[in-house]
Amino acid sequence: MKKRNRVIVCCLLVFGMSSILPVYAQDYSDSGYWVQKCSQPQSSQADVQACQGFQTYQQQRYEELQANIEQYSNDIASLQADTEKMEELAKTQKELQETLEGQIQEKEEALQTIQEQIKKLDTEIQKKQAEIDAWNEQIVSRMKEEQSNTGTNMVVDLIMGASDLNDMLRRITGLERITEDDQDQIEQLKELKEELDLQKSEQVRLEEDTQAQQDQLESQRQQAKQLEESYNQLAAQYQQKMAELQAAKQAAFKDIESLRSNMISVSYSGTLTNVSGFTAPISGGRISAGTWAYPGGGLHLGMDYAVPIGTPVKAPANGVILYAANPAPSNGGYLGNWSGYPFGGGNTFEMICMVNGTTYAISFAHLSREGFAVSAGQSVVQGQTLALTGNSGNSSGPHCHIEVYNLGTMSLEEAISRFSSSADFAWGTGWNSTATACENGHGTPCRERPERFFG
């Protein structure tokens, strides 16, 4: 490099110069990767521009979700007693909720990372600024000393007296001497200054991103709450129609041979062991819907435990599994999802047991596919973990639905024979009335209120 160019480098250092890089097209589909990358300070202008592109992409995702939620809200407002439309909107709500929760989680994780990086960046900026100041003072001092030895103050005048970059370039004509050592230090100082400028601009970008994400996060949390409220209203409307739909679906004949692999064999030769009382099958949670009606109206023939997905379901007594199948995704439930057997049960099992000399059948529905630890014909003991709760089948949220049938003095052999011939979880009590409730004086088999034993 010529001596004149060396001084130009020094001048550019003093007055600064920004680089203009082309914008590169990026694939932002792996948002988790880009959230993690862009929540940290970038080391090049190309990376900065890529992150600016990702921020635009995120904004588009946010705006698209807002439009979808607004459309969903409009559809809810115009909804009448159309069960098919209710089921369609319930599925839409679940998809919107999952997308919204995903974006909220992304923002929460990004904000935590950004705040940590801003603190770290502030420390690095202060350290680098101090280093640059020290280097700059050293270079100016050396140049002053060097020029005093040659009897001229031209370099000092150029560095200290120029008003801007154009003035510097005009004054530089005729300057011929600067040492290689000076040049090396100037080059290193230039690199430090570029790093400092980038870090300062990244600090501003991260701070602006923090504010924007905090604003969006608060808005989306409010939307999540509103979505849940609108969904609860939708579920209440749907539950008014649920009884007749459920009765029609669950009472529908199904080819027993298609269920045979999930049913106990008629050749089963075990026995029932009597216990002195039931124990609760699920710990914690709350009863979100009791027997015989939903809180919002509509027939409900069992008890719902509202608990997080993955909560253990334990045997309430010693018993034998009559039916067990887990064909549905653990968290794939929505209103109108009729997967599983009985229809809409998702992942289900039914067991038979004897408590205080009375034979009972107990069914569990909407379980997780994972952790499903029972099979037909299996003997279980009281307190044994049999499955995990889920949100499968015709379900409006994570919970476990339990029904209890009093079979009186029915023997295990008789119960197996009857179940094998009918695959009827309801034991002839039906699906559309409370008339077969034991408390209404109906003879066995009859439906018990699960709260009587587990409430």
From TrEMBL:
The lineage of its organism: Bacteria, Bacillati, Bacillota, Erysipelotrichia, Erysipelotrichales. Residues 1-25 form the signal peptide. Keywords: Coiled coil, Signal. Residues 203-224 are annotated as: Disordered. InterPro entries: Cell_wall_metabolism_enzyme, Dup_hybrid_motif, M23ase_b-sheet_dom, PcsB_CC. This is Peptidoglycan DD-metalloendopeptidase family protein. Residues 300-408 form the M23ase beta-sheet core domain. PANTHER family: MUREIN HYDROLASE ACTIVATOR ENVC (PTHR21666:SF270), PEPTIDASE-RELATED (PTHR21666). Residues 211-224 have a biased composition (Polar residues). Residues 55-138 form a coiled coil. Residues 125-196 form the Peptidoglycan hydrolase PcsB coiled-coil domain.
